[in-house]
Amino acid sequence: MTSHSLGRFLDQYGGAGSFLSVCLLLILVMFGLPLFVSTFGLLQVTILAVMSIFALSQGFVWGFAGIMSFGQAGFLGLGAYAYAVAVINYGDSTLAVPISIILPMLFAAVMGYFMFYGRISDAYVGVITLTVSVILFQLINSTSGSQYRIGVVELGGFNGIPAIPPLNLIGDPSRPLDQTGIWYATMGGLLLVYSLLRFILMSRFGRVVVAIRENETRAQLIGYDPRLFKLLAFVIGAGIAGLAGCLYVNWAGYISPGVFALTMSAQAIIFVLVGGLGTLLGPILGAVLIQWLINTIGDQGTVDPGLGLGIILVAFVLLFPKGIVPLVQAAIQQALTLRKRNVGSPLPVDADPLQSGAE
Amino acid sequence: MNGENCFADQAKLLRVTNLRSGYGRIPIVNGLSFSVGEGELVGILGHNGMGKTTLLRTLMGYLPTSGGRIEMSGMDITQRSTTQRARAGIGYVPQGREVFPGLSVLENLRMGCFLNAEPENKVIDEILTFFPRLKAYLGRIGGALSGGEQQLLALARCMCGAPRIVLLDEPTEGIQPSIIEEMISTLRDIGKARNLTILLVEQNLNFLSALSQRILVLQKGMITSEISAETARDPALIHDFVGMA
Questions:
Q1: Given this model, what pLDDT does residue A9 score?
Q2: Does residue A318 belong to any structural domain of this protein?
Q3: Contact with chain A for residue B180, Cβ under 8 A
Q4: Is residue A132 part of a domain?
Q5: Low-confidence ranges of chain A (pLDDT < 70)
């Protein structure tokens, strides 16, 4: 194998090991946990998986596409409400699930079109996304009364929609999933979203999205239209958040305007910051750790979860601004380098490729 | 002098007429006209602040034109976006290299293939025959390369898109002499093999005269004269034209 083809091979398959390891770990947790944990325990960990999917949507849009979307909760809420309305009206979740993904995508397509084709700068994209999620919150919050209904479903204003049927086997509403089934569906969703994003990032589309994040003008010079690629990335992120919303409803069994709240959007940002911006494992790790912490703090009732989250955010921004995953990666890299030095490199010191590359 | 005297028989790939642009209200390019024929290697020489980079940025659509016209193969592209100009066949290697520092060399090259209809691997293999030095670094991230290697990568990435004309903005700036020599032979080889048109802005007279068939002298945002490559090699004569040697 020539050095050229070796380089290409490594480039193509070098990251495959970490991808397969994460998938294997997720599959192990997915099938292993129900053997050891009670139904109540499963209910508690299902929300961690739901939030991991939500965090991945934020992680992709912000960490890889560089779009400062501070209102991902808007898409989470749209997905959740779309599922609730569709599943109650149809009495079957078969169509409700795709609707919960497609509706936020359509909404993001319209919103993104005006933002990206209107050449709104990054900071204002953050403001607009945040504002839209607040508007959606206020809108749904003010739908009390029987006149606000879609089909047979009353939106219920502040009280939300209760008793939402869970997922059922495809095309068979008489066989709804139990809590264990919801766990499998949620973990399956997480596995699917993680794999999908991995494949997107390995593809030409993913490379362009990352390149645009690095430097929009450079990408333009090569002929790419950054507006289109940003729009597509934004729409994909909205679809993932919509799926998270659908699974959130299945976990909770009811839905209220709280899903659109600023705290939800803030949580997603904190998940990504703590786990590691620009990684896929980071948002999952951040979501699991922070959500677990929120649950624990909430159970004890000693510290306000919001205050706890704020302290964590400030601590990470000040002490570990890159987040956990990049920190661990750097530590492993350093350990490997030290070990190599101790063993003794066959190459002379001046043959260090990084040193020889420096001018 | 309008820079159109020589090569009048060659098909004009790029024609610039009475071009004006600048930053805000400050005019930098003041009614400048020239044209470049298919396969020509044209240099632009001028002191700092004379508008060389501004001219290239305006041609690429970075800066809006405040007057005049830019044509590519007879098509008016004056109001087109940067992306559209790149799609019309203009390649641009800006000052300071501008590779994607977080992407590997191979990924950088793949990025450049977007406008090329040929299969990506074939394009990259062909380009790497002109840039053998990059073959050893395919897996390394662009930001870890030396300045000279980054410049070669920026050139190679630009060539991957099979541009019809390449705008080069001071490619030798801060580059070690050995790589400058390599760059000259590489650009000559590619130019010959692909009938590539190059518009080169440069202050390095050796580089400029080694590559250019004719040189336009830019002063205060206007083309004031046109000289041959031989003239540019003569320090005494060049002093007469631009006051630099």
A1: 40
A2: yes
A3: no
A4: yes
A5: 1-16, 301, 343-359
A350 in B contact zone (CB under 8 Å): no
- CATH code of the domain covering residue A222: 1.10.3470
Q: pLDDT digit string (tens) for A311-338?
A: 888 888 888 888 888 888 888 888 888 8
pTM over the 0.95 mark = no
Go through the domains of chain B in sequence order and give each one's CATH number. Answer: 1-89+197-245 (3.40.50.300)
Split at pLDDT 50, 70, 90, the class of B11 is low
ipTM for the whole complex: 0.75
B114 touches chain A (CB under 8 A): yes
pLDDT score for A338:
82
Any CB–CB contact under 8 A between A119 and chain B? Answer: no
Q: Report the distance separating Cα A83 and Cα A103, nearest Å.
A: 10
Q: Give how many domains chain A has, as a whole number.
A: 1
Has residue A193 been placed in a domain?
yes
For chain B, the first-to-last Cα distance in angstroms comes to 22
Chain B residues whose beta carbon lies within 8 Å of the beta carbon of residue A201: none
Structure-token pair, residue A170: 């495809």
DSSP annotation of B144 reads G
Looking at the predicted structure, is the pLDDT value of residue B1 above 50?
Answer: no
Distances (CA, A) of A287 to A54, A58, A157, B16: 8, 11, 28, 56
A334 in a structural domain: yes
Which residue, chain included where needed, has tokens 């010191």?
A349
Contact A225 B83 (CB under 8 A): yes
CB B58 within 8 A of CB B21: yes
Tell whether the model's pLDDT for residue B215 goes beyond 60. yes
Domain residue limits at A171:
19-343
3-class secondary structure, B47: coil
Question: Inter-chain contact A210–B144, Cβ cutoff 8 Å?
Answer: no
